[in-house]
Amino acid sequence: MTPKIDAFLKEAQNDSPFLVVDLDVVENRYTQLHTQFPQANIYYAMKANPAQPILERLNKLGSSFDAASLAEIQQCLDAGVDVERISFGNTLKKKKDIKAAYDLGVDLFVFDCIDELHKIAEVAPGARVYCRILVNRHGAGASWPLSRKFGCSSSMAHELMVQAKSLGLIPYGISFHVGSQQLDPAHWGKAIADVAVLFDALRECGIQLEMINMGGGFPAHYQDEIPKLEEFVSFIKEHMKTSFGDKWPEIILEPGRFIVAEAGVLQSEIVCVSIKDFAEEVRWVYLDVGKFGGLAETIDESIIYRIATEYDDREMGPVIIAGPTCDSCDTLYEKTYYQLPLDLKTGDTVHILSAGAYTTMYASQGFNGFAPPKEFFV
User: Fold this and answer.
1) Domain of 353: which CATH number?
2) Are 111 and 255 found together in one domain?
3) How far apart are CA 21 and CA 1, in angstroms?
4) By residue range, what is the domain housing residue 55?
5) Torsion angle of alpha carbons 42, 47, 49, 55, nearest 10°?
6) Residues 151 and 43 in one domain
7) Is there a contact between 323 and 289 (Cβ–Cβ < 8 Å)?
8) What are the φ/ψ torsions at residue 321 (nearest 5 degrees)?
9) What is the pTM of this model?
10) Which helix (H) or strand (E) holds 270?
11) Does residue 147 carry a pLDDT above 70?
């Protein structure tokens, strides 16, 4: 809760739910990462929050951008981003979208299978491509694991990069992602070592790769304490030196959550407080925002948000927290031991902290008639 957000909330006349983002925090996070890791090129992962004010602020700072769709590429261009600073970073792309992006000037594309490679070769001749490999397949250390949906084995990546060259594309690099909200720096070390082996093997085939894309994963502060950014950066640098000596390839980072999560506060109203039996001690607290209103990362109670109220200095009691829709899966926290003030009542306002990433853009466009949260920027 920054002073600017606090001042906005005190004057706000808007119906909840709504998100308030402090753009100075966005700038601070970008600058912090850029300062501590000047060897890396930062490609902001737009999927975390592609709002125009965020893109414009990051563009002024010199950020590049990781776009997941043609629409996100257009959002970048609308914000004044040079097309040379945009990567089409989704392994799943329609051929017509690849062509449209290429025609706009995008020439950096990711892939992880032969089908995707052929699509790129057909409609984006001569483009730079990088192959995403599978790492941390079980999602260890990550609060929001990425499982096996993206990436291929290292052996397959080797063959695909050889084919990329034969198809007239530029085999540019290798990418990986250790999982979103990754709390263990060690997972970058194993991935970097795997990439180094691929670099050596492809060099023997006459292919000199130029780039490692390390994806995102840097965590934001929710309920639990997290390692400092310095720990992640120093660990990555140490393992880059071990694997690549003093001659490093280009490094791309794709932070999203780290840049915007802590910049945002989501205001919500309590719709109802209830119990299920006369002797029940655990209250159900229903908010006017839930999984379908942007809190999708509470699925499996993966991301545990901090919730602030005006009664936080008073006696607490256990609660189950749920959203407002007529869907039983719209329960946010039931297994997590969550406590909120006993004085909370219907109509009270609560503030969900570190909500700047993966909230408003996850919201449905009207499930049960509930509109997505509005966004404000200060």
Assistant:
1) 2.40.37.10
2) yes
3) 10
4) 24-260
5) 50
6) yes
7) yes
8) -110, 135
9) 0.95
10) strand 264-274
11) no
